[in-house]
């Protein structure tokens, strides 16, 4: 635990034990919530994605406590989005909508640039 002021009538050990014994709220099963017939409002879906991403990033930051973790997360996301945009562009091109496919291709190139740019940012000794 962090250094906080604990009243004299409770020991730090007791407080930590209570914290460990406290019931944990069950995390929602996001896969079940947003798949199949469980259609939800896009704003609800977006907020759930933001919350889940924030939670995972906070967990990773807590474990590694290093800016390199954030750099790797950006690289991972940029590369995953790049691959998705390329695949989407190819599928759209096969349907004959070449002008639309070109837009998806252009965005894939921007995502590739993000990866190149993030490589040029130094994040310390673990980079």
Explain what the structure shows.
This protein is mainly α. The protein has one domain. It has five helices and no strands. The protein has helices spanning 12-21, 30-33, 42-64, 67-94, 98-119. The longest helix has 28 residues, at 67-94.
Keywords for this structure?
single chain; 127 residues; mainly alpha
In short:
This protein is mainly alpha-helical. It has five helices and no strands.
Percentage of residues in helical conformation = 55-70%
Tally of separate helices: 5
Low-confidence stretches: none
* Computed Rg: 22 Å
SSE order: HHHHH
State the end-to-end distance. Answer: 29 Å
Main beta-sheet annotation: none
How many domains in all? Answer: 1
Task: Please specify the SSE layout and strand pairing.
Blueprint: H1 12-21, H2 30-33, H3 42-64, H4 67-94, H5 98-119
Helix pairs in contact: 3-4, 4-5
């Amino acid at each position: 635990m962090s250094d906080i002021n604990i009243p004299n009538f409770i020991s730090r050990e007791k407080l930590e034990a209570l914290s460990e014994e406290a019931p944990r709220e069950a995390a929602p099963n996001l896969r079940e919530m947003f798949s199949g017939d469980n259609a939800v409002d896009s704003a609800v879906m977006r907020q759930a994605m933001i919350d889940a991403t924030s939670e995972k990033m906070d967990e990773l930051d807590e474990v590694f406590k290093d800016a390199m973790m954030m750099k790797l997360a950006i690289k991972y996301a940029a590369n995953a989005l790049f691959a998705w945009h390329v695949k989407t562009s190819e599928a759209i091109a096969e349907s004959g909508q070449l002008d639309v496919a070109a837009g998806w291709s252009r965005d894939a190139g921007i995502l590739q640039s993000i990866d190149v740019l993030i490589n040029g940012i130094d994040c310390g000794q673990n980079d």
